[in-house]
Amino acid sequence: MDKEQIKKVISDFLSSHSNEQLFERHKMERVIDMAVSKANQLGIGVTICIMDITTTVQMLYHMPNANLVSSTLAPKKAWSAIAMKESTKDISRDIQPGASLYQMETMLNGRLVSFSGGIPLEQDDQMIGAIGVSGGATEEDQAICETAVSKFLKE
Question: How does DSSP assign the chain, residue by residue?
């Protein structure tokens, strides 16, 4: 499949699944509100990124108390989850010395994130996007991201 055919498949999929409904603004605001609530419970500031399957950022929120670096890492986590078709916490095992994708992160000019906080969004066994969260310890980012993904899929 060439690049144009892939774009057409993605476009057809998104139009048949009503991208406007999947990534409706009020829905994403509720997802971000839930993620912020979880971050507040944990006492940390984070950045939350919701990205569609075309890797277009649909919504990004940077909490006032979040570290500046999180505004760069949250979208990278979402992108990595889409690019690798798995949660970023699982990418780490694949790129360790001796693993099948060892040193892959060095080949992507710093785009690939291999620590927790990025999770693909799947609906009807199809990946539709991802959410990335950054700002806390990796376990905290993962917990907040899981909360956000759960809310997104329930909406």
Answer: --HHHHHHHHHHHHHHTTHHHHT-HHHHHHHHHHHHHHHHHHT---EEEEEETT--EEEEEE-TTS-TTHHHHHHHHHHHHHHHTS-HHHHHHHTSTTSTTTTGGGGTTT----SSSEEEEEETTEEEEEEEEESS-HHHHHHHHHHHHHHHHH-
